[in-house]
Fold these 2 entries.
Entry 1:
Amino acid sequence: MTSPSDYSLNELMVVAAARELRDGDLIFIGVGTAGRAFTLACGIPIAAARLAQETHAPNLAIYWNNLLSPDLQQIPEKLTQRYLTSWPTAAQLHNCSEKNDMLQKGRFQVSFDSAPQIDRFGNLNITAIGDYRHPTRRLIGALAQTDHFAYVERPLILTDLKKRSFVEKVDFITSVGYLDGGTSRADAGLRPGGPSRVITDKAIFGFDDETKEMTVLSVHASSSVDEVLAEMSFTPRLPDEVPETVAPSAEELRLIREVIDPRRILLIA
Amino acid sequence: MRSKLVGLTDAASLIPSGSTLAIGGSIIRRSPVALIRELIRQGKNGFTVLSYPAGYTTDLLAGAGAVDRVEAVYEGLFQFGHSYNFRRGVEEGRIEVRDFDEITQAARFRAAAAGLPFAITDALLGTGMAEHNPEQVKEIADPFTGRRLHAVPAAEADFTLLHGYTADEYGNVQFPLIRDADDLDPVLAKASRRLIVTVERIVPHSEILKIPTQTYIPHPWVEAIVEVPFGAHPLSCDGWYDEDEEHFAEYQRLSQAGEFDSYLDKYVRGPADHAEYLATALTPARLLELSVR
């Protein structure tokens, strides 16, 4: 057994994410804009994919930076262009619209997404805070995060739990989760789907089968239900008994530290 | 085939202020940065930028006050952080922005490439992009099933600006054997009305003939071809040189602090041409460090 002092929250998030991945999954990993955003969007997902390969899903593959199925046993020492270009990979598709077609045709089982704003029904905002045409804070746009929520089987949201991030309703819907809950996603004409899990630094959430409200699945040993609720602007559904998030095993920690990210280029912030 | 070889200054002179520009590359990789610097040097402004991910070039134009509107999937500098010039421009109401997801924006360029007036997408159902852009996102019904969809206009630019690897003087532009394909340049090229391509090196036509399947931009699409070594600096050009992390640090420090005029004076308006820019921004030792050839 490991205790919270034995591992970092990033390591816990890697392990939690890896457990959501299944053998044979094709996983879309996106773009992160510096520091913590890079760790959440790229670093933890890549580490989780490799960890899952090592533990229970040897045949999963990722798509990142137009590398389709890069060899995760050969994660380069740096992530500048030179190293990306020479990273051994099964395919470099001709241009990005090949990947778009793959997404739209439903060829991806999992995507990793993160956002500065997420609401009760799992809608994401990475576009603008405040009024769209006169924003108080312009964000980065949309990327393929819209497309992940429209077309990917089991999108996973990785983000830090903060009161200003977990809001009753996002200011702008970049990615349609379960819209207003219930059947509203399907009513709006979207294909079946929607986010599967929200993995944060304090707790893991799912979505209620009927109402589609965000629901606490487990709370990390380093946190508490009260602390989780204090960091949310809405009250999620809570089970009567809230389980503790399964801690990383000693072997998982060894793999992350010695095999997957020995140079600390993935879990950077 | 006729020669389309021109100098950087003359290529930029083709482009009037107020034009709609489609700019290629990807965020911090292989964009026609030297050409954008030359546009700013010539005092051009009022541009609309159509992009897939807009990154450094859009931020540079924003920092020079030269862009009025942006339609793209992303504005930022990847691991180097936010596009502070662009962000400030939007927040202060100087830059109008319309967002599209990657699939829809690529579909808009593909419609333009195919000579069609609009593209069809179901990616925007329920999104803010549809809600806040009724001018460009129109609900339509699938004529066969009645299912709700959106029509979005083809991404038609006045000029398309790309940076490539090698080309002959006729404008046959080739990929290297090993490259990073994380961009939409081949589609942007096909979608262009007036296409200007800067390349790292002009090679003899006989070189192009060796592997014609490497030609991703054939000469009939090209109006002007320009030889600009290190033409994407401080961005990377896969197979030629890496991104210049030190330069990015300076760029981000000045743009974040709101002191971008000093960057423009030093690197854009100050140097008389691309050669002077290279002499200002790079030492021979640094040039060798960044080179990956």
Entry 2:
Amino acid sequence: MSVSDETLMAYADGEVDAATRAIIEAAMRDDPQIRRRIEEHRALRETMQEAFSEVLQEPVPQRLIDAARGHQPARGHDAARTGNVVDLASARKAAADAPGRRRSWQPIAMAASVLLGVALGYLAWHGSNTWVKTNSRGELVAGAGLAEALSNQLSEDRSPGLVATTGLSFRAKTGDYCRTFSTGANASSGLACREDDGWKIKVLAQTPNATSNSSNFRPAASADAPAIRAAGEESIDGEPLDRAGEIAARQGGWAGSKR
Amino acid sequence: MSTNESAETIQEQIVALLPRLRRFARNLARTPHDADDMVQIAVERALLHLDQWHSDARLDSWLFKILRNAWIDEVRSRGRRAKLFMPEEAGENVGEASMEREIDRLSVEAALARLPHDQRLAVSLVLVEGLAYKDAADVLEVPIGTLTSRLARGREALAAMLRPPQGDRS
């Protein structure tokens, strides 16, 4: 008799009753094809289990343990985390009302091209590294560490040890998503936009004490240095994303509307 | 769950299940960060609705179901369902992986990410999480026959994607 592949699959998963098992085991003895198909099902199962086992060894973030124990989540995150439909306007207002949060751009006249010069100088100074590099077309792009932060981190997250923190996120007039960032390690900040092949650095600025003669830059410990804000103001379409907007953009891989 | 004592016990059981919840969430969400956000949402919801959990039901299945619903809500509320399934993104970092084992892992992830989400959920629950068919069907709120056929189709597609290329090498 022929046994359906679904039945063989169920057998491989230990999901058949005794009668079916007897039939299949009899068929296996006669038919190497059936034996092979069952082996394939088992091998795939093992492959899947092994491929996804690593996360089980990772330390669980404290916020999840706190949540499981019923401790209060950090204030301000509630709206985005209840999972209900979030009213973006009210979420944005809540974010804007939060102390210490900057949610608007101050227009500042400053040519972004000046900053690109700084960026190239920066590269010449530091050589290639993990957070800014040039691609094959000579454009500045985020290196692995910075790209990781830009792709995964929400602006409210400030975990120690990360290569960069992200500031504002917004949709640019080009349709691409852009984010400001800063890195504590080398006192730089900038603006990167997600294009088809990665995060392109649009603006990069350094703090005065990190470069010899950048008197036009105020200390840019955060990602809202004037020049970066100016570049953002110039390219932004609408308003910056709130947390819910960032989560949605991140889910879409920061893919812009053109793609 | 009428006493604090039993609620605390369940909370510790949920803590113990967090690694598996994170794993399941990663097979739904685009990034590990999104996955953890969803786990947090699900866990917070679970605690709010502990009275709906019957102690004869499996706690892991119940939490997987809440997690899956949280994911569906998230997707719906964003109206960005299509954006969640951009398979080319999943394999994007393969070239950066230095170890072969890492590449293997990513390619399996990439293959899973390419499945339609019904099949991906069935495969995640049964093959990765090791749930019995009836428990997985319960999480997905579908009849067991539906679960079985999604699983079979998902497996077939995965096997085809993971099979080493043969014959067409020049």
